[in-house]
Design a protein that fits this description.
The chain is mainly alpha-helical. It is 85% helix and 0% strand.
């Protein structure tokens, strides 16, 4: 996760730098500020897509974990300890994946909020 966060911070810092007007900077044919805004808007769209995917996949993984928990309980009632252990092992894997995806979604929400703040400061 640190690599992911570091890349995000680096990208946001770069976008912020592009969006800040440079005092007395000569203007060439293209506006680097407008290009930075467009790039940040594209990135925000990608983040929104990633967030939707993470939330959806987390729900799928949590549902699978719940199903496996139910199967484990049924196996315990039936006296099948081997099946119960296997279901609980897999339950833990799916639950862990769901929790990781929820953590990713939390980071993505924070990144989207940061992007919105940068765009608001840029006056868009």
């Amino acid at each position: 996760m640190p690599d992911f966060s570091e890349r995000i911070e680096s990208a946001l810092s770069g976008w912020k730098a592009k969006l800040r007007p440079e005092p007395d900077a000569p203007r060439a044919g293209s506006d680097p500020r407008a290009a930075g805004i467009a790039e940040l808007q594209r990135a925000m769209h990608d983040l929104d897509t990633d967030l939707a995917n993470a939330v959806k996949q987390s729900a799928v993984e949590a549902s699978r974990a719940s199903e496996l928990e139910t199967r484990a309980m049924e196996a315990i009632r039936a006296g099948d300890d081997v099946l119960a252990r296997e279901c609980l092992r897999r339950h833990g894997e799916f639950l862990g994946t769901a929790q990781k995806l929820e953590a990713d979604a939390l980071v993505l929400r924070a990144m989207i909020a940061e992007c919105r703040e940068v765009l608001e400061q840029a006056g868009t």
